[in-house]
Amino acid sequence: MKIVGVDLGTRSYDIVIGAGALGEIGRLKPKRTLPVMDSTVKALHGAKILSALGGDTGEFFTFPAGERSKTPETAIEICRCAARLKFDRTCRFAAAGGGVTGDLTGFAAAVFMRGVEFIQIPTTLLAAVDSGVGGKTGADIPEGKNLVGAFHQPAGVFIDTRLLTTLPASELGNGLAEIIKTAVILDAGLFELLEKNAERLVSAPDFEELYPEIIRRCCELKGAIVSEDEKESGRRAVLNYGHTFGHAVELLSNYTLPHGQAVAVGMAAAAELAVMRGLWTRSDADRQNRLLARLGLPVKVPPRFRACDLVNAMRADKKNSGGSIRVVLCSAIGTSRLPEAADENELAAAWEMCR
Description:
The protein is α/β, with parallel strands linked by helices and about 350 residues long. The protein has two domains: about 1-165, 3-Layer(aba) Sandwich (Rossmann fold), CATH 3.40.50.1970; about 170-350, Dehydroquinate synthase-like - alpha domain (Dehydroquinate synthase-like, alpha domain, Up-down Bundle), CATH 1.20.1090. About 45% of the residues lie in helices and about 15% in strands.
């Protein structure tokens, strides 16, 4: 079992990684717990998750799988379920699922009785390496993605790699996009490891050694940044590489395009902008895009989306400041820069380069 600590003083917590991590939930103080999961996770893993939590199978909340459920209304329904079950402020919520479940459950936990404890049980690779760690919670509204939410750290994260073995290739790809993002902005060594094992990661996933090691490294990198900058007032912002671009693609697709695919396209667009500005070499940009393509991820914007509409969608990103669209760019594999303002004409040109 691999354990990564996130140092936040009295709110510090551990990320437990490996086959059997569900059994480590007992290291936390016992509490009455409300498990939250979507319909897919309930069908695949519901029984084993409920057993690990030691709860009454009558006490859980499920919702339809998919990004379209990630609304403030669903978060309120989680709170109403807890209220109907007479949960109080000593209770705990448990998010068992992917990024949608983790964000919604954490948001509900942040506002139920002005804040109750919650834990993360990622069942997708994306949640394991990114959204399940760091305390960002929230929901989407028609005007944009994650525009309502709160910072609310989990009491623990339990990544049982046995739960990842049921993931279809498309869900693996969502997580791999975030892994590549982490490598591009923070760790050239991790990037090289991904290049060396690209085909193995997709065609013969190794959830015993290779994936646990990659997950551990991503959690270490993100945990260190969260410990330094919990509420994204500085360096944590580099974790948004590809996301301001990618969220625009998601918004225009009405969230039908998976998050990882949208981020992959966003990374390709960010690379074009960095090359245009002379920050990044063409060879590094091409190297990033080759790895994305080798792992089955898109690097071209859907042809039905016009550049002007994509730029307009980027204006709704919550990371913008002072009326300026701000994006994270890189200067080398493993080296990133804090967000900087981008002119709408150069953003449109970057999108056109991704046709």
